[in-house]
Amino acid sequence: MLNFDKLSLNIPETTKPRVVVIGGGFGGLNLVKKLNGKDFQIVMFDKQNYHGFWPLLYQVATAGLEPDAIAEPIRKMFDEEYEDFHFRLVRVLGVDPVAKTVKTMIGDLHYDYLVIATGTKANFFGNEQVQKYSFSLKTIPEALNLRSQLLQSFEQASITVDPENRESLLNFVIVGAGPTGVEMAGSLAEMRKHVLPGDYPGLDFSKMKIYLVEGLERVLPPMSPEASAKTQKYLEEMGVIIKLKSLVDSYDGDVVTLKTGEQIRSQTVVWAAGVTGALIDGLPKESIVRGGRVTVNEFNQVAGYSDIFAIGDIAFMKSEKWPNGHPGVAQPAIQQGQHLAKNLRRLIRKEEMTPFDYFDKGSLAIIGRVRAVADLPGNLHLSGFVAWVAWLFVHIYYLIGFRSKLVVLSNWIYRLFTYERGTRLIIRPFVRKDDKDAEEFVMKNEIG
C-alpha cells in the first residue's frame, strides 16, 4: 500500500522557465514535441501513462482492435533526446493561479507557464440514471467494459430460454449520431452480418436490433448535409434503425424510455450524445462557458491570465469564423499545441505572440467496409470507397508509433478480405455493481 506521506513529485529545481502541461492528449503531446528542453523545463501530468488515439476506441469496443494498438506509453515518446522533460502519473486536484502552483495527490508544483489540455468527458446532461446504467466511450477501460458487455450479451442470449430476455440482450441502443455513434452503429451492423452468425449458429441474428437515437433532425450534425444524407442511406442499408428528433428520457438498465413515450428493451445502451470539458478546480467561474469549456483569447491564454493557457477540446476560442469555438476533434488540438509552443518561445525572447488561425483540413466518418463520408476543403464532398481510403490513410498517419501503425494497418487489411475480428475475448467480465444476477452467473461459471 502506498504511503502518500513518503511520495514526492521529485521534479528537480531549475533556473529555466517551467512549463507544466496537464493532459497527454493530442494538444499536450504536440506542444511538448515542439518545445525545446534547452529553453524550458517541461513537466507533464496525466492520470494515465499513455497517449490514446481515441477516434478508434469504438473498434476496441467492437473487437476490431486490441487497446495497445491505439495507445503508446508517454515515456516512450519522450526519451533521452527530449532534454529536461518530466512525466508524472498523478491526478491533478486543482490549480492556484495566485500562488502559481498545480496541486496533486502527492504535492504541489510551481509553474511559470501552465497549459491545460485535459480534453473532455461524457456529458449526461444531469441524468444520473442514464449515467449509472449506460456505457460511455471516452477511455480504454470504458471501451473494454463495453466489449465485454457486448460479448457477454451474445453468450447469454445463446443460452436463455426467455424470449423477452433474449430480445433485451440482442437490442443495442446508441444515443447520439455524431461520428462516434455512427461508427459504432456501422461496426455493430457489420458484426451482425459477417461475424456473429458464425460464432453463434443457434442464434437468429435477424432478431438483433441496432437503434441509433439522435435529438437533431439528421445524423452526423457536425458534417455537411450531403455527408449526413449519404451516411443515413448507408446505415439504413445495413439495417440500423434510426430515430431522429428523439431524446432519451430515462434508462433503468432494462428499458430505454424516449421523450415521446416509446420504450425499447435493452441491456446495452451506448452514450455518445455529447461531451463536456474535463475541468480543473481553481479556474475562475467567469472563464467557463457552456459545455464546460474554458474561454481563451487568440493566443490560447485563459481569460484574465497571461501565464495560463488552454488548448484542444477544453478551450473555447470564439472568432468570426468560429462563433461556437473550434470543433471538438483532433486537428484543432494538434494545431493549437504546435502553435502555442512557438508562442512560448516568443515569450521568453520578449517577442510578441502571433494569433492562432485554425486550418480546417476537413472531416471524415466511416460507416463500414468501403463505406465512408468526407467533407474536404473547397466544399468537396466524398463518399464510398474513395472516402474510405482517405479515412484509412488519415487515421494511420496520425497514429503514434510505427508499431501501432503496422498493427492497425495489418488488422484492417486482414478484415477487408475476411471480415474476421480476432479480439472477441472476454478478458474481464463486466458486471454492474448492483446486478446480483450477473454477479452470481459469473461466480457460478468461474469466469475470470
Automatic annotation (TrEMBL):
It is an enzyme of class 1 (oxidoreductase). InterPro entries: FAD/NAD-bd_sf, FAD/NAD-binding_dom, NDH-2, NDH2-like_C. Residues 361-416 form the External alternative NADH-ubiquinone oxidoreductase-like C-terminal domain. The keyword Flavoprotein applies. One of its GO terms (molecular function) is NADH dehydrogenase (quinone) (non-electrogenic) activity. The keyword Flavoprotein applies. It holds the Pfam family Pyr_redox_2. The chain crosses the membrane at residues 380-400. Its EC number is 1.6.5.9. Residues 18-337 form the FAD/NAD(P)-binding domain. Gene3D superfamilies: 3.50.50.100. Keywords: FAD, Flavoprotein, Membrane, NAD, Oxidoreductase, Transit peptide, Transmembrane, Transmembrane helix. SUPFAM superfamilies: FAD/NAD(P)-binding domain. It catalyses: a quinone + NADH + H(+) = a quinol + NAD(+). Belongs to the NADH dehydrogenase family. PANTHER family: EXTERNAL NADH-UBIQUINONE OXIDOREDUCTASE 1, MITOCHONDRIAL-RELATED, NADH DEHYDROGENASE. This is NADH:ubiquinone reductase (non-electrogenic).
